[in-house]
Amino acid sequence: MDEHRDRSGDKMLKSSAAFKTFLMKNSQKSNMNLYDHLTRLLLKVMDEQPNDAVDIFEDLSYDVKRGLFEDTKNRLRDLPHTTLAELLAEQQRLLFTQQEDTEHEDELVESPLPNINEIGFYLEQAGVGLGREEMQRIFLALKQLVDSQPLILHCRLWGKILGTQSNYIVAEVEFKDWDNENEKSDQAAEEEQNEARESEENEMDQLPQSTYKPPPVVPKEPMGTGSNKNVYYVCKEPGLPWVKLPSVTPAQITVARQIRKFFTGRLDSPIKSYPPFPGNEANYLRAQIARISAGTHVSPQGFFHVGEEEGEEEDEAPRDSYEVNPDFDGVPVSEMVLSLSMWVHHVQHILKQGRCSWINLAVKPEEDQNEEGEAEETEEEPDEPEPEVGPPLLTPLSQDAEMFNTPPWSTKISSTLTSQHAVAVLRSNLWPGAYAYACGKKFENIYIGWGLKYTGQGYSPPLPPPPQKEYPSEPEVTEALDPTVEEEQVLEDALEEQQAAPEEMENTDEEEEEEEEQELDND
Amino acid sequence: MDADSLHYSLELVAGSGNILNTEHRTALQTSLLILRKNYKFNRVLFWGKIMGIKEDYFIAQGRGDDELKDKKNLYSFNCMDWFLLPPATIPMIEEVSKAATGRFMGDASHVYENTILKKVGDEDEVEEELVRISAVEHRLAVTIHLIDDESSVIPRGAFIKNPHGFVQVNRCFEGLTESQAAKLDSFLHFRDPKTLKKKSLLELSELNQTIDFLDLLTDDVPKGMWSLQFENANKVLILRCLLWLGMTFYHVPMTPQHGYIYIGDGVRNLDLSFML
Question: Keywords of this protein's UniProt record, alphabetized (chain B) (predicted)?
């Protein structure tokens, strides 16, 4: 009996063990086994004790299975880092968009946009340039500028000025008419004066007015003439918006001639220098651009000629207009390289005063507007200052003065091996970075550099002016040495002798006086 | 910059304004290869161009086993015929600094003369004329030596010092990351270190012996001497030296491309302190 029971018990044990192992066999698909799954499921039911567990049994099973999948990914993900290049690329993408409303008529009309690709090619022959891709980007940026400003007559790539933190790409623009510009500048001047008057009225007590009269300010040249002939736009990188530079005043030019500063790349940074520069970096940049243009913009002789309307030779007024000569045939490159007289300046020279056309400051102008609200009294009679004269327009380069033992220009031919198709290159030694090339009928100027003139061995800043005299020295105010004891003694003896003769009777008084004086001397 | 990478790296430094004519570029590629074979250099670099009044000098530099010490400089007018320059020694530097002033002329046979009037004694006011003479080649050698000494740059990690003490190109240099490249202290002077010895022990302990054996750029005086910018659509890092105007260093982040070139008139900018 026991054996029978044992045998059936063993059989049951064996079959249950077999079944258990069957349950624990891992599925090939999911690597799970039924035994574990059922254990977990029942534990879950035990924990949660849901109502109607049998109805939601399949869902429970599904939940258990799903809960087994752990999240292998890290919860934290790196933010994609936008690099500087990506930011700029977004802005430069606009360069490549085609305007929808360009009509075919525009191709027939002469566009003020220069052909930068061609200029870039010639400059590359000359060994100057910014690289092909950069020139292409600048080309597209100039096109954007020309499209955005409707009144442009001429537009030119002036060059690039390097700065310590970022650089400037400069475009030179000549407008068709100047009314807009004049209005804006007048408005600005009026606002300044209004503010000055208001501050005057606010003062309750009149402070003592100083009798100092500052030297008269040289007025700036009107737009469209002289150093303000062109308007300059700058941008940091092609694709970024163009910023217009303010017009230049003669005071800024005179101070810019005396200081030597790097550009930082931000237009609003102040210029700390002695003599103090009237303005911020935008004004300094504009002043240097004006100086560089006046000093280094050259063209082959004959390309421009004086306008034919001025038939008479006017010796008094400097020529300030020129026209493209339609009869220009082009000068052979070898001649351009050999002699400097084949090149002429076509921008007016800036006089010492800071302007291109001299103005006589001694004459009291009628429209003089005083910012301080004081009435200008009659000035002292100055000697008539001599008018400053600069070399007239279109003077050849052979007349340029040599400074610091270096000739002002160096000429070169771009290739000695293939000189039939070479380009004549002119390099300025006074403004390092200024280049000009000429090839047949084409020529161009460009400046790529730091914006500084060559000053020879070293730059020494100007000394401050001598201190002003306080007041005129009169004998009452001048100091004099006190008389020494011996001198006083001598004086007294002399006095005594004078008094001794008439007053011999008053001996006692004299003695007293002597004693008193001795006491005083002893003090 | 390395002669092998000349054709694309010239575009990268073009932001400074001076590039080479196509004719010169092709001539350089040919002649630098020949130069390397003739002089048995390990590497030949196109060092740059010194602009003279009449002619420009093209300078090439050959490097031997030790990049820091085995340097030979050569100059040429037409990128084909190269002439070896003597190594710059201290008496040569003194001689040149007294005699040569002004710009380079561009003439190989030019001799610099500087006459100084010197009073002999207080009693007799006899003035002696002392004439200092120096040849153009000496001046070139000294100028190149000084420019290399004061303004040649490498990114940190580009060169390593092997156990024998030789400085060699690091073949495992992958390039600086963009954030590392934006900081000036990832760049080192490529010259015998001068300020490294003055550092405190604490700072020295953090440095890696194999790659940090050179001076940092940030130790230069005056502080604003280097201008760090991203150019060429912000892809290339450009370092410009304001003491030697015309020295440009470029590095493309995340690539091992780096190099420097000097194109200028070979005159030190003494007014730097006024200009900053």
Answer: Cell projection, Cilium, Cilium biogenesis/degradation, Cytoplasm, Cytoskeleton, Flagellum
Q: Which residue has better confidence, A107 or A374? A: A107
Amino acid at B14: A
Residues A87 and A93: their CA atoms lie apart, in Å, by 10
Interface contact flag, A417 B23, Cβ < 8 Å: yes
Q: Which residues of B touch A410 (CB under 8 A)?
A: 53-54
- What does the alpha-carbon distance between residue B159 and residue A319 come to, in Å, rounded to a whole number? 61
Q: Tell me A238's DSSP state.
A: B
CA distances from A279 to A246, A247, A255, A285 (A): 10, 12, 10, 10
Angle of CA points A68, A70, A72, to nearest 5°: 155
Mutation to test the A interface, candidates B16, B244, B265, most A Cβ within 10 Å: B16
Instruction: Select the highest-mean-pLDDT range: A102-106, A128-132, A174-178.
Output: A128-132
Q: Give burial (CB, 10 Å; 0-12/13-18/19+) of B101.
A: middle
Q: Residue A129 — pLDDT band, cuts 50, 70, 90?
A: confident
- For A388, other C-beta atoms within 10 Å of its C-beta total 12
Local confidence band at A290 (pLDDT 50, 70, 90 cut-offs): very high
ipTM: 0.87
From chain B, the residues in CB contact with A89 under 8 A are 233-234
Q: How far apart are the C-alpha atoms of A92 and B207, rounded to whole Å? A: 41
Single-letter code of the amino acid located at A459 = Y
pLDDT above 60: residue A383: no
Please indicate whether, in this complex, the C-beta atoms of A452 and B275 are within 8 angstroms of each other: yes
> CB A406 to CB B19 under 8 A?
no
For residue A495, give the 3-state DSSP assignment.
helix
Q: Do residues B256 and B175 lie in contact, with contact meaning Cβ atoms separated by under 8 Å?
A: yes
Helices A485-500 & A507-522, crossing angle to 10 degrees? 180
Q: How many CB atoms lie within 10 A of CB B149?
A: 14
C-alpha span between A264 and A450 (Å, rounded): 10
Reported pTM: 0.75
Chain A positions in Cβ-Cβ contact with residue B53 (cut-off 8 Å): 406-407, 410, 429
Q: A106 — phi, psi (to 5°)?
A: -60, -25
Tell me the C-alpha distance between A56 and A517, whole Å: 133
Query: Which chain A residues touch B18 with a CB distance below 8 Å?
Result: 127-128, 448
pLDDT reported for residue A367:
37
Angle between helices A116-126 and A132-148 (to 10 degrees): 150
Averaged pLDDT score across all residues of chain A: 77
Determine the Cα angle at B38 with ends B35 and B39, to 5°.
85
Maximum C-alpha span of chain B:
70
